[in-house]
Amino acid sequence: MTKFIIKKLLIMTLTVFLISLAVFFIITLPPGDFMTNYVGRMLAAGERVNQEEIDALRRTYALDQPFFVQFWSWFSRIILKGDFGYSFSLSMPVTAVIKAYIGPTMALSITTMIFTYLIAIPVGIYSAVHQYSFGDYLFTTVCFLGQAVPNFLMAILLMFIAFRMTGDTMLGLFSPKYQNAPWSWEKVLDLLKHCIIPVLVIGLNNTCGLIRTMRSQMLDELNKNYVMTGKAKGMKAAAIRYKYCVRAAVNPIASSIGWSLVNIFTGTTITAIVLNLPSMGTVMYNALINQDMYLAGSWLFLMAIATVIGTFISDVLLAWLDPRARKEYLKG
Amino acid sequence: MFKKKDKKDQAQSYEISPEHILEVRNLNVRISVDDYLLHAVRGVNFSLKKGETLGLVGESGCGKSVTSKEILGINPDNCKSEGQILYRTKSGKVLNLLELEHDGATYRAIRGSEISMIFQEPMTAFSPLYTIGNQLSEIILLHDKNATKASARERVLEMLRKVGIANPEKRIDQYPHEFSGGMLQRALIAMMLCCDPDLLIADEPTTALDVTIQAQILELMRSLQKEFGMSILFITHDLGIVANMCDNVAVMYLGEIVEFGSVRQIFHNPCHPYTKGLLRSLPRMDQNRDERLYIIDGVVPLPVDMHPCCGFHDRCGECLVGICDTQQIPEYEAEPGHMVRCKLMEQGVKHHG
Amino acid sequence: MGLFKSKNNTHSDEKKSDKYYYASQWGLMARKFRKHKLAMGSTFVLVIFYLTAIFGNFIAPQGTEQYDGKFVNCKPTPVHYFHEGKFVGPFVYGMKTERDPVTFMAQHVEDREKICRIKFFTQGDPGGEYKWLGLFPSNLHLFEAEDGGKIFLFGTDNMGRDLFSRVILGSQISLFIPVVGMLLTVVLGLAIGSLAGYFGGWIDTVIQRLIEVVRSFPQVPLWMALSAAIPKTMKPAQVFMLMTIILSLVSWPGLARVVRSKFISVKKEDFIMAARISGAPGSKLITRHMIPSFLSYIIVDMTMSIPSLIIGETTLSFLGLGLRSPATSWGVLLQETNKLETIMFYNWKLIPMIFVFLSVLAFNFMGDGLRDAADPYK
User: Which of A136, B205, B315, C286 has an alpha carbon 20 to 30 Å from C359's alpha carbon atom?
Assistant: First the structure.
């Protein structure tokens, strides 16, 4: 197992390096470098530009150098100093921006993830066991519909419904009253209330996908020969289902946690923009609109890293849960 | 619905011949597939004595597997059955298994401990996620209320040793994918014999295995039968195995038993044209090498919308037009204990061939 | 079973089943697909959508650049058949502007006095000229109201543009970007996947790393980053091309991975071995034997990937990162709904959403039907 993990970690390192290369390439795609844009904006805003300062910044970020030198200066600063560069639109280091927003983003993502799995697994099992029943048709239909609505439309719709029902659009994570208030029970409740729509929106797509996967996995398992063996042993049908089928069907689902995390991150991005949540998504969006590429790039980089880590977790989980995969991994 | 049935069988009592352990009477099974209703088993009758081995022979799709699974009550829900399957339990009571609720306590107590079954593909018969030991001791813990985990493990080790698995102490904690096919079949046999059943149903247990392994498994089953004294219902399409293993043979075609008799009777005096065809299509040592193997023309039809007729009539070289394809053919007794379902057996009917 | 040779059957129903047994793979698929009612219905809906898009300029009463400043934020115009109990055929009432006595907002209401019949196959107003398929100049439109009447079936937007026309013209982009993007994806995925699967070795290793890297990027954020890099000064047609490239750049690895693994498994099959032994060259082996053996799978996979491309384009345009006005796509149309007031007061502006929803759903169902049909074990 250790050997397997070490091997995976080595591949991961290589992947991360390649990813950073790709990210940096995307960052440099827009015409002109950041400084030109920055200077242009400052001038447009009627501010004075200190040429010396500009030149100093240019040198720091090696903007006058060829692509690979620029890349290396960017990459090495991330790796060695944890310095992601400077956000020109917010006028603060990218690291500080990330620090400010990573908390709510993670909290929202993890809440959604828990919600997703708590709903998807039981519903999927139910649908498979009661295949072609009314409940199965109902869930399947809901899932199809849920997957057909883009996140942002769902957000708009729910916002509309919330406004119609409560007179509050539930934008942001807090009502204005509690925005700067000290933590209290009321504030927590207010937060939870504001979490309902984001969690619903972000979770819906993923939950629907998971339900369908869980259902088809479970159906596959229910038709396996070992179910027959279990019956021939004298086991109760329900016992076979829970000891053998569910365990086997959950394996791939549980090990898809890594991918789910990515989906949820993605979902957060769009939803956060529409619902105006203080998450990385909104920051990224503004950064993209303003072509504040260090900020946008860092965020893209972090997401890709999260994906790589998620995939790693998935692989390890799968190896840990399934003896067959364990053997294969140990061999390879 | 099934619950009511469960109560009913307390009231009604059945009689079967004292030397019999199992009697199947007029069993019919219909399977609904998509828009069709397959009449998979059509009026099957047979009985099985204690300690006896009965071979159930036929091509794929002739209903032999469905019949055997019906005995154990493990056919899927789209199968509807009629008739009687009478079974004498270890306590001596006779039950009609068809009246029991499939997932009910009575039936479950019988499955695995009184009637066991081994399957065609040992590789898929085990769950890949649990150790062999876990899956084997489960059956003991299910049926023996006094068993502890430790005692069950002891018993499993003993059984693994009995079926010829080397180094059982190590093997017991391995997963199915670490076993070869033959080893898995041994483990499956060990599992199904853990609770000392009276009847073992073997559904083509050697089809998926190599020929050398086949012989070993058959040998193992024979010796275990001697030791445990159980009856075996042996399902196969391999007549060679039948000749080796069985006392009696039932030949099935299209859901019907077309011929029933002792191994000797069937092999030396086959009466039904289908049985004759089967025997002729076996390769023989004394056959000329250039000679082609005998082929029965046509394929097994699907048993949909069956009208009264001999199921074999459209492939039979001796078919009596107007009789075989329009009438339900009764059973004829060729010799004592040798039953044939063929009109040609009737006296006065012209024998073509 | 192979032992027994087939006998000539005389019964007609047996002949039918013979046909079933000897039908080609595609014949069987078509047969099973036709039985899937939802999938058939969805296919029908999609055919209508695409036909409407192709004949869009004819069906839409207004062109992309026409607008009428007098009719800003109009409600959908109801089409009537009866006037005061008398049948007059399809017509709309004329429109007049009133001020709401409470909010003082301008409102367009029906003028019950004025009847404007609907004419069909008319020559449109100046400004409504178009070139069908970019080739044939015409100004023929499906319908128009007589006597200066206005028909806004889906209402108008805040510039007085007919939403019905915009939805139809928008579909020309929203429904074709995904298809072009998908075709690009197929080409990329097939080429790269077969390279990796067929040759193996270091080529495979390099491609696998590449796939892994691209897959490590979450789809939508990467789309966002890439489309943000599109210069704002570009022409709509160029943006369209770039969008399709961006969409397919992100989605090819999924297909390439599948193709690669299919290649590896199919390489070991006997029929490939047979073709190889009989001396078929590598390229023929790939195009004639290997790809057809999992073509059905690819078709299913591609149908299933279109919804995410539709959603991708719509989302990006909605966020203002993809196509921008004056280019018209469903996402661009939905940009207006980003403001809460819009949904509160002008809820007909959500109509484009229904089309996004329907087309995604239809592609999903069609893909599902195709998958079931392509599955030989069902």
Answer: A136
Looking at beta carbons, which residues of chain B come within 8 Å of C7?
A: 297-298, 314-315
Q: Which residues neighbour B232 within 8 Å (Cβ) at sequence distance 6 or greater? A: B52, B53, B54, B199, B200, B201, B202, B221, B225, B245
Tell me if A8 is assigned to some domain: no
B247 C-beta neighbours (distance < 10 Å), count? 17
**Residue C228 to residue A159, Cβ atoms within 8 A:** no
Contacts of B315 in chain C (CB under 8 A): 7
Per-residue pLDDT tens over the stretch B210-256? 888 888 888 888 988 988 889 999 999 888 889 888 999 999 988 88
Evaluate if residue A72 carries a pLDDT over 90: no
Judged by a CB distance cut-off of 8 A, whether residue C1 touches chain B is yes
Pairing verdict, β C130-132 and B248-253: unpaired
Give the residue extent of every domain in chain C: 58-160, 165-374
Q: What's the domain range around A148?
A: 101-279
Give the tens place of pLDDT for each residue, B190-213: 999 888 899 999 998 888 788 888
Structure tokens belonging to residue B56? 């159930």
Q: Which tokens belong to A304?
A: 């890709």
Q: In the 8-state DSSP scheme, what is residue C285?
A: I
In angstroms, the separation between the Cα of residue B87 and the nearest Cα of chain A is 16
HSE (side-chain half, CA atoms, 13 Å) at A47: 9
State the complex-level ipTM.
0.83
Please report residues of A whose CB lies closer than 8 A to that of C209. 14-15, 18
Question: What is the pTM assigned to this prediction?
Answer: 0.78
The C-alpha of B247 sits at a distance from chain C's nearest C-alpha, in angstroms, of 27
Token pair of B165 as six digits: 């698995």
CATH number of domain containing A196 = 1.10.3720.10
Neighbours of chain C (3+ CB pairs under 8 A): A, B
How many CB atoms are closer than 10 A to CB C37? 10
CA C74 – CA B162 distance, rounded (Å): 87
Q: For residue B129, which amino acid is it?
A: L
Look at C6 and B298 and tell me if their CB atoms are within 8 Å: yes
3-state secondary structure chain B: CHHHHHHHHHHCCCCCCCCEEEEEEEEEEEEEECCEEEEEEEEEEEEEECCCEEEEECCCCCCHHHHHHHHHCCCCCCEEEEEEEEEECCCCCEEEHHHCCCCCHHHHHHECCCEEEECCCHHHHCCCCCCHHHHHHHHHHHHCCCCCHHHHHHHHHHHHHHCCCCCHHHHCCCCHHHCCHHHHHHHHHHHHHCCCCCEEEEECCCCCCCHHHHHHHHHHHHHHHHHHCCEEEEEECCHHHHHHHCCEEEEEECCEEEEEEEHHHHHHCCCCHHHHHHHHCCCCCCCCCCCCCCCCCCCCCCCECCCCCCCCHHHCCCCCCCCCCCCCCCCEEEECCEEECCHHHCCCCCCCC
Helix (H, G, I), strand (E, B) or coil at C80: strand
In contact, B65 and B41? CB cutoff 8 Å = no
